[in-house]
Design brief:
alpha/beta; 7-stranded mixed sheet; 15 strands; 42% helix; globular; binds pyridoxal-5'-phosphate; transferase; alanine-glyoxylate transaminase activity; PyrdxlP-dep_Trfase; L-serine-pyruvate transaminase activity; aminotransferase
């Protein structure tokens, strides 16, 4: 690997050499047939990954653009959404809704916990909601959403399910062909970005709409957007030689390679690997007296928010890790200084995480704690290595 540091933050995540190579391929015209073939392949692979028969969009933008695209094409001004928020990124939908004159109702969990499904049901009974937003893995808290429970409740009430997969897609199951109970109870929109569990550099917004979501778009007379109006992009996604706005040619090369790696590994293998990584990292860090903010049954497979033991100096700890070549992220909002976040997703490997566990133990010992890195590494190894099919 060309990387000099281990970038174990909740995105961007480590980029492998074959993706860098793709990124460095010759920049061609965005209407060149050779580029269009790669763009088409990248879109097709995305469709395969999400198992959707709807429309897929892969455009320049960050995950936030994907969130905006998902919302403005399904919900009109004056209509109502319910935001299920399990942290900072869930809350982002409140701001987005407000920016577009959408009425927003919110169910917020205590940080580290999941929203109670009974509360979702009660809220949905009360009003007519066009859509409900769910953050699959909230990057601020490391809390995962329980789709098995939430999707059936939401669909029963006739609302669209908009799933923010920015920190989950390609690592946690998001199967748009899957029915949750009834035959028409499916996830309607999945949105994501290139730089997290997909493992490609930042810069791409990826969104998939199923037929129900496309019907919702058809009913909106005027979408309050231009770049984010899916009707401007459908012709390009179906024929990438057409022009609407210049696609990020080199990033599309990189994304196509990233998606090749995703599909080669296989979705089931990826889900299992990430599940094992999450469990192994959290168990290993528990050996150091560090506990995850989320309880194990609510914890995301892709990243963990880890509470420091008493008295830990956040800045000194992360500086010591950086010196060793490991970059982790600080915690957000009221947890800043009290926790750190570690990503374990995308093209991150067992070897990297094993090294990270060791480095974290070493850093703690340097800061005056007395922990056993060898024991933590053993604990990690026992859980991290999964049998792949
Ligand atoms: C990172 C993240 C976003 C925002 O993505 P950007 O690429 O930073 O715009 C949104 N939702 C979740 C769950 C995220 O993890």
């Amino acid at each position: 690997m060309r990387n000099e540091e281990m970038l174990l933050i909740p995105g961007p995540t480590p980029v492998v050499d074959s993706i860098y190579d793709a990124l460095a391929s010759e920049t061609r015209s965005h209407t060149d047939a050779r580029f269009a073939a790669i763009y088409r392949s990248a879109i097709d692979k995305t469709r395969t990954m999400l198992k959707t028969d709807g429309e897929v969009f892969v455009i320049a933008g960050s995950g936030t653009v994907a969130m905006e695209m998902a919302l403005v094409n399904t919900v009109a001004a004056g209509e109502k959404i319910l935001v299920i928020s399990q942290g900072y990124f869930g809350d982002r939908f409140i701001k987005l809704g407000e920016a577009f004159g959408i009425e927003v109702d919110v169910l917020q969990s205590e940080w580290g916990k999941q929203v109670n499904p009974d509360d979702v049901e009660q809220r949905l009974v009360k009003g007519k909601f066009k859509a409900v937003t769910i953050t699959h893995a909230d990057t601020s808290t490391g809390v995962a959403a329980n789709l098995d429970v939430l999707v059936p409740i939401i669909k029963k009430h006739g609302a669209l399910v908009i799933l923010d997969g920015v920190c989950a897609t390609a690592a946690m199951e998001e199967d748009m062909s899957r029915t949750y109970g009834d035959s028409h109870h499916k996830i309607d929109v999945v949105l994501t970005g290139s730089q997290k569990a997909i493992g490609v550099p930042p810069g791409l917004a990826i969104v998939a709409f199923n037929k129900t979501a496309l019907d919702a778009r058809a009913k909106i007379e005027r979408v309050p957007a231009y770049y984010c109006d899916i009707y401007n992009w459908i012709p390009i996604m179906n024929d990438p030689q057409k022009y609407f706005a210049t696609p990020p040619v080199n990033l599309i090369y990189a994304y196509d390679e990233g998606m090749r790696l995703v599909l080669d590994e296989g979705m089931e293998n990826r889900y299992k690997r990430h599940e094992a990584f999450g469990k192994a990292v959290r168990a290993a860090l528990a050996v150091y007296g560090m506990t995850a903010l989320a309880k194990e049954d609510a914890a995301a497979a892709t990243l963990s928010c880890i509470l420091y033991p008493e008295g830990m100096d956040d800045a000194a700890f992360r500086a010591s890790l950086a010196e060793k070549g490991l970059i982790v992220a600080g915690a957000l909002a009221h947890l800043a200084g009290k926790a750190f976040r570690i990503g374990h997703m995308g093209n991150t490997t067992e070897e990297m995480l094993e090294k990270a566990v060791l480095m974290i133990g070493d850093a703690m010992n340097e800061l005056g704690y007395s922990v056993d890195p060898a024991k933590a590494v053993d604990c990690f190894k026992e859980l991290a290595y999964v049998q792949v099919t």
